[in-house]
Amino acid sequence: MASEFTKRYPVELILYLTDLRYLNLERLNWLGDRFEWVTLAGPGSRPDTVPASFRWHGYEKETPRAHIWNQLLEESQREWALFLVDDEKIRHRDLPDPTDLSADTWYPAQMVQPDSSGGVHSYYQMRLVKAIEQPLFDGENLPDCTRVLTRHGVKLSRPILRIDCTSEPYRDIQTEEELSGAAMSPQVHLLEGRRLYREKKYVHATAYFRRVLKREKLLPFDRLAALNGLVQCYTEQYKWDKAVNLAHQSIEAEPRQRIPWLVLFRIYQLRQQWEEAYSALESYHQVLPEVSMASFDKSIDESESLELLVKMALRAGKNREALDALEKRVALGAGSAGGSGSVDGAENAAKGYRSGAGEGSEAASTTQTGGDGSIESLYRQILDLSVELKERQKASHYFSRIQESLSKEELHDVMSGFMENGWYDLVSHIYSRLYEMEPNNPEYGRRLIASLTKQGKLQEARELVSELVSI
Predict the structure, then answer these.
(1) Reported pTM
(2) Sequence spans of domains, the chain
């Protein structure tokens, strides 16, 4: 990729505007500073606000997009052209090094679109192109060059070109219009299959996905999308064995995609196969940092998936893995929760507790607690697992994070766990501080005596017994 490339990029950037409301002069200047040649294609005549340094290509709104793009390629001033639509964004450093551009291997564009639920959708199109044949693009308003690429034996690069979108790139596509065209894009059948899937017409959707897979000339990311569409349809029809089999085929072809792993997780979860469900979801998390080469792929909100991973780990009896997932979730939502976990942490916990953060106190009422997924709830889960797994430093650290919200009963419960693990010095630090604050509370004194006795500090324990007797 072009991390070291600092000059203006030697391709023609073609910004295709479906509406003039997407015309942004600040963005135009940014593009002009980074590309050797910039062309704007928009409906109607050239706006007066467009600087003379940018070429303008006006088009009639009724003209199909593929036709316009073919014309723009024919008029292009450079060997290669990069198409962007409306407010799509690209980072200069993500562009391939110009020396890597080859007629034999093209860089596919991954269109990345976040959704309102915290997930991310990804689609593939060919946007960085060369007119190796005219017309290059088939279709109507869904420009596609599958036919030309497969005929010329063009390979697709594993490094991809990322384009960020604020909305789905196919939002305005009318599949009926595309299906009536002489040379259509295979993605039309994918779009129709996805539409029918959303409408829960799984049998009809399956037919469209199968139609895509029967094509001999097909780009890899579209083939994966069709295969994954079948997997999802079979899952919804309770044909789980078929779905599992196809999901594994899809993963074998492209291990770094998301949907097959999520489908496997869902099926195993419904079957209450907790070990397999955990394994599928863990694999999903492992590939999240990687680039999926499947079109119409989707990830879910990471906080949600980590919560599911914790639940599956616990049901599978993988408590240590559950602890790791909980800490990842805390780090994701509230920053890293690292700390020394030393005796000082326990001492600080006692200071906070005796400052009035017990049950019903102001500090307790203003702390985020109670609800599932709250940071306080996560800390408590980590604390309990740390005690169970005898992770002394983590237990001490996370106790110090939640001590202000603990009632006296909850405090005693946590300290009992510390005692069972032999962490007597930590317990002594907590109860000695609390007893200093409330010398008339015999429960603190008795528990302090027990921890001192366990440490062999018999003289201190006797003195405290005498003190308690005189109360």
Answers:
(1) 0.86
(2) 1-169, 338-469
